[in-house]
Amino acid sequence: MRARQLLAVAVLTVLLAGCSEDPGPEPRASDVATVARDQVKDGGTLRWAVEAVPATLNVFQPEATADSELLTEALLPHLFRWDDHARPTADPDYLAAAESTPAGQRPQTVTYRLNPKAVWTDGTPITAADFIAQWHALGEAADPAYRTDRPAGYAAIAAVTQGADAREVKVAFKQSYAGWRTLFSPLYPAAASATPAAFNQPLTNAPSAGPFTVKTYDRAGGRATVVRNPRWWGDPAKAEAIDFLATPAAKRLDALDQGTLDIAALTDAVDHATPAAQTNAAPPDAAAVAEASAQALRRAEALPGLKLHRAVAPAFAQLTLNGTRGPLADPAVRRAVARAVDRQRVAEAAVDPLGLTPVPLGHHLLMAGQDGYQDNSSAAGGASAAELLDQAGWHRGGAARTKDGKELALGLLIPEGSAGARRAADALTAGLAEAGITLRPQAVPAESFLKDHLATGEYDLALFSWPAGQDATGAATRYGKPRPGPDGLPVIGRNYARTGSEEIDQLIAQADAELDPAARRALLQEADARIWQVAHSVPLYQRPDLVAVRTEVANAGAFGFATPRFQDLGLRRG
């Protein structure tokens, strides 16, 4: 059986080698002010902007935000560190060893050997009990009273047990899981997961086990202060404290200019800059939005005593095609739309004004620089948009194509107030017009974009961004074929395109369960090729990440996929 699987993978690799394109230049994966530890002062407080002090530090609760994730990097165990190309390395502060049974051996069992020095701030050792409690809260058989969206991977676990002693953990899987390195990160103390009542409460004061621990947590006042963990066993934190300060995007440039922040992400501050002359009477026009964004960027670049770091974020912009609506219900029309999109043109429009090299994205499952990335867009076929539309009966008699007297016109949802989305929409509109397809962009407020349009199917095309995972496991939630629910209606999950195939589902499932790296890469290429062929969506570009850092601050910036090493952050010597 294993030999047949490997033979099939080899065949897929050969097939895809013929249709993949030259990967071309890679976007900048990270931009960090890297300084050796011995050149960083001991002491001092860093001031880091967050959108808001999060309601919870439990990243598995529905109320968790990206700021929850950020704070846990400083406070809680993450078993693996990831570099800017999303390559994992076991973190020796937490793991003495971590080994999985080899590919082909069933069942898969992962053995963690914990660092014997690792303890929670209340003095309790980190042990197998913490892993067991977390699995009981997140696994497939968990009590439904636990309020969580069941993160990917935990359902594949059959059992979590103590090994030779309390510092050894055995995780046995029901089916192999290639993304096992993403599990139990962050890790919470057993008491925080022991019961639904404990798990569901807002988590702000549980014991931590990182280089920092919480000193104050003031949501109303907009400040969470973390200080050196006196029980930390690793390299001591250079900074004495970090203040995470609630500073909405619109106020960050002023705060930096006034000297009240040291580190601040500015992508939204630039992209959603408000035109000076805006009134409440009507939304600003595209020219005013573009000019406001350009002014905000120039200001960010000129802030005294600060450097603007630029890289691509672990997120990507995608054009999603609603396969159940109007002309897009015809696969040939969807393929024509996908073929008509000039991804380079769109990337240049969205990214180039922000000072980053515009690199179009050619993969739905992997980002440029990740292991196995290649541009598979040519898997969609060689027929032009014009040929596909002619075959589908949409003929050109003027600027736009028509069929049975109806113009081929499609609505395009874009996020309201985003200069980058407007530039991308303009590029898409111009490109599709060349194929005889009329686009009608519609700017929609963030609060209704998902619930009133994506979730309900009330749209034709939608331009929005997805976060990119450190590996491709869990892709079935976005690309899995919708299945009938108990009421007979399709359950779409996060597959807002509402299209898919049995083959895509099987390939993603096989890739998620494949432990051999080469075989897994080949399965991911084939799955991606099939997603291109059903014209589910068009990946466009990786989102820019702009981060302002005060020049005396060391080891901060635009991290990309990389894990920040909080114990190395601080102020430069000299």
Query: Which residues form runs of ≥5 with pLDDT under 50?
Result: 1-21
Whole-number mean pLDDT: 93
Report how far the terminal alpha carbons are from each other. Answer: 63 Å
Strand order of the largest sheet: 12-22-13-19-17-18
Query: Could you describe the largest sheet, including whether it forms a barrel?
Result: 6 strands, mixed
Shape: globular
Strand content: 15-25%
Instruction: Let me know the number of strands.
Output: 25
Percent range of helical residues? 25-40%
User: Number of helical runs?
Assistant: 16
**Rg over alpha carbons:** 25 Å
Class by helix and strand content? Answer: alpha+beta
What does this protein structure show overall?
The N terminus is likely disordered. 48% of the residues are buried. A six-stranded mixed beta sheet has the order 12-22-13-19-17-18, sandwiched between helices. It is built from 16 helices and 25 strands. Helices cover 28% and strands 22% of the residues. It has 574 residues and is of the alpha+beta class. The N and C termini lie far apart (63 Å). Helix 1 crosses helix 16 and helix 10 packs antiparallel against helix 12. The longest helix has 18 residues.
Primary descriptors:
six-stranded mixed beta sheet, disordered N terminus, 574 residues, globular, 25 strands, alpha+beta, single chain
How do you describe this structure in short?
This protein has 574 residues and is of the alpha+beta class.
